[in-house]
Specification:
Number of helices: 15
Largest sheet: 7 strands, parallel
Helix content: 40-55%
Number of strands: 10
CATH architecture: Alpha-Beta Barrel
Distance between the termini: 34 Å
Order of helices and strands: HHHEEHEHEHHEHHEHEHEHHEHHE
């Protein structure tokens, strides 16, 4: 660390030394970071850690988001995307429609990110055929599909174990799980915002099962609603303990809560500084998860750029079309081009690296 003098008066000297040594921070040290009156000092520590891991390399992917349905049985209080079966505004894509959307992307995606609502009638056989059809249409693309919540839903509909569902989908072409559905692990908050959704324990178990099958996964945290700072730290700690056990998390995505179209009334909406501080602390606490994403869809482009100096090293990708965040009130564009993403990164003095779904650099990109 170049200048410990900055951190000592803030009570962060010992944390700065641990960050420099690559040592794990405790929950108490996480509390100190959240309480620090200088968020830029916290950001500086996270940026030091990001540079130690990845240098100036900043990753992006040519990807395509597909939301196959918004019909869902869970009825989460925070969700502006879901509709009940038969409700106005509900939609379901056919296999042909989903494949056509993939094929119509401006560039052939290297990563397909597909999630949807927990539809009461769509059976596992539909998703097996959907994966096979997508793999046939785009054999070079990595299929990153279905949250752990969707996996649990499929298992309940079929009377199967979640491990059996994962094995069946893997055989059909599934390569990764996205990180959605984690929301916040604190049970009391979860009871208030998503009482029908998988518990934290089930979400973590399913990701562990995926890791055991050789499926990489991402992980997320939805913050800025009803949770406390302790809840955020607990969530990060549970993720890193799961990573200690099964080791398959590739990337962490901190998701700021979108308040505009939610039934949850937040008394203290997130500030931009709180977003950046939480991203920075996530980088510092999650010492065993290699990448932290600045998801421009939810953060906005400018805030995502700032996050690249608060511990994040990835901007996600081209996306093309995203419904969940935008129906909740996200004001960002629907998609970005490769040129736009690279310009965003180079404009900050950082180095753009096109990657695949598992963060391997794309040769010749």
């Amino acid at each position: 660390m170049n200048d410990l003098k900055r951190f000592e008066p803030l009570g962060l000297g010992h944390i700065a030394r641990k960050v420099q040594a690559g040592e794990r921070l405790s929950l108490e040290e996480g509390r100190a970071l959240f309480a620090c009156p200088d968020p830029t000092a916290v950001g500086a520590l996270a940026h030091q850690r990001r540079l130690a891991l990845h240098g100036a390399h900043t990753f992006y992917v040519v990807n395509r988001h597909i939301n196959y349905t918004n019909v869902c049985v869970n009825g989460c209080a925070f969700c502006a995307y879901q509709r009940a079966k038969g409700e106005s505004g509900g939609f379901e894509l056919s296999i042909a429609e989903a494949v056509e959307r993939l094929k119509s992307a401006p560039l052939p995606p290297r990563e397909v990110h597909m999630v949807g609502g927990c539809h009461p009638d769509l059976r596992l056989s539909f998703f097996v055929e959907l994966l096979k059809s997508m793999q046939q249409a785009l054999p070079e693309a990595t299929l990153k599909c279905f949250t752990a919540v969707e996996i649990a839903h499929f298992a309940r509909l079929e009377g199967l174990s979640t491990a059996a569902v994962l094995a069946t989908l893997k055989a059909a072409g599934l390569a990764m799980l996205p990180g959605g559905g984690a929301e916040i692990f604190a049970p009391e908050v979860r009871r208030r915002i998503c009482p029908k959704k998988s518990t934290a324990e089930e979400w973590l178990r399913i990701h562990g099962e995926a890791h055991a099958l050789g499926l990489a996964t991402n992980c997320t945290m939805l913050f800025g609603h009803l949770e406390s700072i302790e809840d955020r730290l607990d969530h990060l700690d549970r993720l890193r303990r799961q990573q200690d056990m099964t080791g398959g998390f590739t990337c962490f995505i901190p998701l700021p809560f979108q308040t505009e179209n939610s039934a949850i009334k937040v008394t203290r909406p997130l500030t931009g500084i709180d977003e950046l501080r939480t991203i920075a602390i996530s980088r510092l606490m999650l010492d065993n998860i290699p990448h932290v994403k600045a998801y421009w869809v939810m953060l906005t482009v400018k805030q995502a750029q700032a996050a690249l100096f608060f511990g994040a090293d990835d901007l996600d990708g081209t996306v093309v079309e995203e419904k969940i965040g935008h129906m909740a009130g996200a004001s960002s564009e629907q998609g970005q081009t490769k040129a736009q993403l690279e310009a965003m990164i180079r404009g900050l003095g950082l180095t753009p690296v096109e990657r695949d779904a598992r963060f391997n650099p794309v040769q010749g990109a």
